[in-house]
Amino acid sequence: MKIPALTGTVVLMMLFFASCGNLVNDELLNDRETVPPGLTGDGFGTILDGNFSTSGKVLVRSTGSEGYFLSATIKDENDKDNIWLSYINNIAERKWSARLQNSGTDDRLSRIEVIDNDNILLFADRYYSSETNPDIVIVKVNSSSGIVWQRCIGSEEKNLVYGTLLTSDGGFLLTGITVIEKTETDPGVFKPYVLRIDKYGNILWKKDYKKFYNIARPAEIISLGNDEYLISGTVTDPENSNINGFYCTIDGSLQTGGKIKKTRYIKLEDANISMLGCISTGENITSVIAVKSDTSDEFSILSMNKKNLKLVSRKSYYFSDFHLQGAVINVKNDSFLLAGMIKYLKGKGIYTIRFGMDGSIKELQTKYYDASGYKFITPGFSKIDEDSNVTFISRLDNPGVSKYLFIDRFRTFSSLKSSQSKVVVVIDDGTEEIDTGIDGEDVDVEDEESIIEEKADPGLFFKRY
Fold first, then answer.
1. Per residue in 72-84, pLDDT tens?
2. Separation of alpha carbons 53 and 73, rounded Å
3. I want to staple 382 with a disulfide (CB 3.0 to 4.6 A). Which of 59, 80, 109, 391 is the partner?
4. The whole model's pTM is what?
5. Residues in Cβ contact with 393 at an 8 Å cutoff, skipping those fewer than 6 apart
C-alpha cells in the first residue's frame, strides 16, 4: 500500500542495528543508572507474583499523585477466573490486594474506571459452566469497605463490554456488543449498544443500534461536551471483508438518551483500520488509527469535524518495529501520548510517542529489557496527569511456571532523540499535497431499546489480603 502524504506529512522509520541489554535506555533515569526493582527514582520495575490468568485484560490506572490501581484476572483454587485488584503507591510498594470471587463462574476483567483514591469501578465478562451466553458484571469497590454495590446485566444473547466513560453526575456510560448468533435463516449480527447507568448501578436508558454492517465493534466512548458523546469502533465490510472504522455521535442526556445525531464510516480500499483513540479538541476530533495492509503498517492521525464527521486532515507514520496496538494516553491541551509494545523480534520493550494535536511528532522514547524470557502480552497504560512519567503494566508468561504481572514507570523527555540502543530516527518531511486516501460514507443507523437488563445478583465476595 502506498503511504499517503500531505503537506507537512512526516514518514518516520525506526531501524534497529544492535541487540539490547538490560535497561539499555539508561538515560531515562536521572542518575543514568538502572534503578533496582521497588526503589525510588524516575523509573522502577516490579514483578507481582501470582497465578494470573491468560484471560481478560491487565490494566493500570493512576489515582493522581497518590498511586495506582492495578487489576487483572487471577486463578482461584478451583482454577476459576476471578477479578484481582491491587493498590500500589508511587514507588511500587503494594499496599493491599483483593480477590472478587464467585466460585461458580469465570469472571474476566474487561475495564476499570477510577473514581478517586478510594473508589473504583470494575467491569468483567462473566462466563458460566453451562452453555449460557456470557453476561456483564459491574462492581463498585471502596478500598476500605470492599464492595459498595454489584450488578450483573445481560440477556439471552452474548453481551460483551468494550468502552466505559464516567459522567459528571457520578454515573457512567457503557458501550459494547450484543451478539445475535447465526441461524439457518439469519446471519450472525454484532449489534452495538450504549447504556447510561447512575452512580448506584441502575440503568437509566439503554439503546441498541442496527443497520450497521453485520459485524460492528465499538471500541471507545468519549465526551464531546453538553451531554453529547462520540462512539468509535470498527465494522467488517461484507463485500471485501476489510475492517473499516466508524464514528457515531449520540445525545446522551436523560431526556433523549441514546438518540443518534450522526454516523459515518471511514475506509481504505486496500487496508484494514483499527481504532486506537479519539480526543475532543475544539471544533474537531483528533483520532488515532492503525492502518495495516499487505505491504505496510502505519499510524495515522486524523482531524475530523465534530458536526459532520468529515475528514479535515491526515498525517501518517511508518514504524518498522512497533506493534500497531498502542493506546492513547496522557492527553494535554496541545498534545497526547501514544504508547505500545515493540515487536518481539526487535527486542522486548515499549515505546512512547508524543504527538501535537495537529499530528506532528514532539518526542519519541523507547525502553528495552533483558533476555530473561519474559513475554509481553497485553500492555495497559496509565492515563496519568503527570507531565514526565509513563506507567504501564504487562502480563508476563514464563512457560511451565506461574504467571506474573510486571509494572514499570519511566521518564520521557521533551525533545526527539535517538537512544543508547542505537535506534536511528529518520525524518522525511513531505511537501506534496495529495488525496488522504481515506473515503468517508454516511451510515443509515437506527436505534431501538436494548434487550440488556439487570439479572441475578453477581454474588461476588471481596477477599482482601
1. 999 999 999 999 9
2. 5
3. 391
4. 0.85
5. 58, 59, 60, 70, 72, 379, 380, 405, 406, 407, 408
